[in-house]
Design brief:
Blueprint lengths: L18 H12 L20 H9 L11 H13 L11 H10 L3 H12 L6 H18 L9 H13 L10 H13 L21
Helix pairs in contact: 1-3, 1-6, 4-5, 4-8, 5-8, 6-8, 7-8
């Protein structure tokens, strides 16, 4: 599968249709009772994500029994799944505006609210937006979990930023701290929110059945 570069069309920058449902399936299994007591993201070790689980999520996320797996395995699988996506979750068409906002807005809360408005643009493919809703909401919950799972927004942003932006698709002259701040700010404000498909937005239908 090919990735999304700076000159690619919106269609080429859209994550696969099943990706949001797969991410939601993993997160629902991760957030089962007692998950707050597991240090899910405190250490980032070599991936233990089972290949058969990743393949099943690509085929039919709703049919996958994620509850049979340990939380650590599910956390690794979430990261591995995002790593294998063919393009950045955040498309290049919005990249410059996001970086500018991170540079110019000192407050994380203010920055996060502005970033949410930018990401609500019709230029953000629906499937990418929905995936980012699930991911940022989950990471925000981790920061507030109060147990062994709890980690700071900045730590989580540093852990996931390569998976969200896939740096190789963007300019190498941008300070990577701006990437971290973008995701950190979204986590601090509770993540993206659901929205109805707006005029001009790609309306991709997916979901668990």
């Amino acid at each position: 599968m090919t990735g999304c570069g700076l000159g690619d069309s919106l269609e080429q920058c859209t994550v696969p249709d099943q990706a949001p449902a797969a991410v939601l399936r993993l997160i629902e299994a991760l957030e089962r009772p007692g998950w707050e007591n597991e240090p899910l993201y405190r250490t980032l070790l070599a991936s233990s994500a089972p290949l058969d689980l990743q393949q099943a999520l690509d085929t039919d996320p709703a049919a996958v029994d994620c509850e049979q797996y340990d939380l650590a395995v599910l956390a690794d699988t979430l990261r591995a799944y995002l790593q294998e996506l063919p393009c950045p979750i955040i498309p290049s068409v919005l990249y410059s505006e996001l970086v500018y906002t991170a540079q110019e807005t000192a407050s994380l809360e203010d920055c996060g609210q502005q970033l949410k408005r930018i990401l609500d643009s019709p230029s953000m493919p629906q499937s990418n937006h929905q995936l980012l809703v699930y991911l940022t909401r989950h990471l925000s919950k981790v920061t507030q979990s109060g147990g062994a799972a709890q980690a700071s927004a900045r730590f989580l942003a540093q852990a996931y930023i390569e998976l969200v932006f896939k740096h190789s698709h963007f300019g190498t002259d941008v300070n990577p701290d701006h990437h971290v701040k973008i995701l950190e700010a979204l986590i601090v404000v509770g993540g993206l929110t659901e929205m109805q498909a707006a005029p001009g937005r790609q309306d991709l239908h997916f979901g668990l059945v």
